[in-house]
Amino acid sequence: MYKYHAEEAMYRKYTDESYKLRAAFIFVIQHIEYVIKLVGVDYVGIGSDFDGIYQPPKQLDDVTTYPLITKALVEKGYSEKDIDKILGGNLLRVFKANETN
Description:
By secondary structure, the chain is mainly alpha-helical. Helices cover 60% and strands 0% of the residues.
């Protein structure tokens, strides 16, 4: 019985400490820019699949913080058209191109 309490305490200590090691928000933006440079803006998209993970990047704790990504892309000089592509336009284009009648 006590064994499980020890494991739980160890797990809690590990997860609390590792939560402090979350990636910085700027790394998310830098990664988006890296992929854009690698393959082009028409092939980049972000989704909410990281919402709910234990260690989301700093400042991106849930989907309500996604406007920070938009703001950062605007500040980096991306056009509204390119930001629309990144935030879902590319996904919709691919879905539409592959939907069956």
